[in-house]
Write the structure tokens for this entry.
Amino acid sequence: MAFKVTRRKFLQTASIAAASVPLSKVATAKAGVAKSPFTAPGSFADTKIAVGGICEMCFWRCQLVGKVRDNKLVKLEGNPKSIDNGQAICARGNAGIKLLYDPDRLKYPMKNVGERGNPTWKRISWKEALDECGEKLNATVKAHSAKGIAMFPHGASAKYPMQYFEHTVGTPNVSEASFFQCRGIRDYAWLNTIGTGPGENVDMANAKVIFGLGCHFGENVHVSHTKRYLKGLENGAKLVIVDPRFSAAAAKADIWVKIKPGTDTVFMLGMMSYMVANGKYNKDFVEAHGIGFDEFKDAIKEWTPEKASKECEVPVAQIKEVADLLAANAPNVSVHPGRFFSWHGNDFQRGRSLACMAGILGAFGVPGGFVKGKGPGGFGKVGWPKGHEHHEALHRQMGIYKQSPSGTPTDLIRDCAIASKPYPIKSCVVWGQNPMQTIPQQHLTIKMLKQMDFVMCVDVMPTDITLYADILLPEASYLERFDYIKKGTQWDFSDTHQQFVSARMPLVKADFERKDQVYIVNELAKRMGHEKAIPVQTIEEMVDTQLKPAGLSIAKLIAEDGIHLQPGKDPYGVNEDFEVQFYNEELEDQGYPGAPTYIAVPEVPKGYMRLLAGRSPLHTFNRTQNNVWLNAGMPENPVWVNDKVAGKLGLKSGDKVTMVNSEGVKSSSNSHALVTPGIREDCVFMAHGFGSKSAGMTVGKGAGMDDQELCSIRAVDPETGCNGMRNNFVKLVKA
């Protein structure tokens, strides 16, 4: 007889099964490892479970346990005690083992005795490497002050070194890709609307409608976030996706809005103008919490659905349909703030329009709306003290980009270094970031690096940026070190409210000569004359210092199977003084629009298509391209091209293609076409992060096309100074 089970029933039984096996039966506290009752006798009987893992195959940082045999990690799983990701981890999380044991991983300190961009590596000792780093960085500070150093950090391990260089050394030239090429614009747009950054704090699990503008749910695969999204759909939420491409999320949508790229703000203005004009907004919420609503109403009234329709090429009826659906289900609507936000150079206004839309609906502090989980507090800080020398960031000196995220806009650092104006930048420290693939206009990044006196890179893999290093240092991976404290609440706010605390702990020891960030930076600090400023001596001390004020420690977390749980607090509701700045007078005083305002972007030239890039469920940008498991699943990034356009070009799915952009820049590698009606005729799309050029990446080198290689048109957001990455135009060429 056939056995039938619904998705809902499967999820319910899976949850019950997971809950029925207490982790205390799997991992004991004594040493953080224990024999697993799930392994078969014989050669598998000595498999142990290591607790305390926190994934970093992407930034979502799911909680892990590891199966260890003969001191080797053989399997990664979600920690059953987790109220965040639970036992679930994604393909990338599972493939962390292949990062850990990648034969191409950096193993020893190396010195480049060749030329930058075409290195010849010589293995050296840690002492030699750190001596040279200290000597060269000190020489730069002596000649040019701390302003002569630039730093490009990324990831959990980069926080400790970033603070050292920014605070104690005193350089203002620090730029994180996660801010300036990703979410910085979003955070500051919402900060100027509701007084806080949004994170991904939308209660999709309990929404009546989920509204995503360019949100690639199911393609970015952040586990607990995706669980909220799927739970909302299972509970009957309507889904609206605004995207020029028929994405994985659009395939599940009740309404897909096939918008013209760059016009997202005007689409939002058209909906809000219609809702306000027809009284289809949450009047009680706006009256209680709205600031500047009358000025906002006046500023957006010109954007009728009819006028907006002509600009964004969305039918008037569909603009009204989406607006009516949101209004009818207010306030229980998830207006998702997005994540990768740096698109067209007009993105701050898109962020403001999304936040104002949530305000019009009153979608704050209610089931389905913007709900910031109340996580645990009372943790300590480990910080480098500020030194005697501090300099204002470039944009503040110049009086521009007054809503810039923390750090300095990347373009300003690069321009300053190339021109030596207003001052020289002659040393560069890159920690876990790959600026070759995070910053548009690669030729200028190369020019910046080649004029440096010294370039130091710390990484796990030999990514493209390492080709330009003078000294290359091998870092312990996230599976081999302590560091990150993760704390928060459960993913579904309809459950009994709980809070959790976990800390990253090594599941296995680091092989070869890989070191953690505290060791590397402390040794560098000694050589740069800052030994007395060192805040902690070991990475274990750093974690315990952070945990101690909360009454926790590494030992206590191990005793609790890697995760501490405690009662939570009801996250719903907003304070009486909560405000939505529909019209922000401070922005106006700074010379920016007080209300969300549409800024048009350049049109696509005749014969070209706009290049769009985004996420893949099997890769996290360039960092996973060399992973053999993930490469097997997606070895290159197919180029989505409209079927009508493909017909004119004589292309069919699977044909090898390359690209040339409107500036004459040609892709140095190729991929294959994916012919589909599911993308506008004026666009092509591919996943970001492919096309590595480093010969050290033996699996990822030359696999697929690098979208950043083709991003040669500069588009900078006027409020934040962040780079737009979707203003480049390409032609497809059959390879």
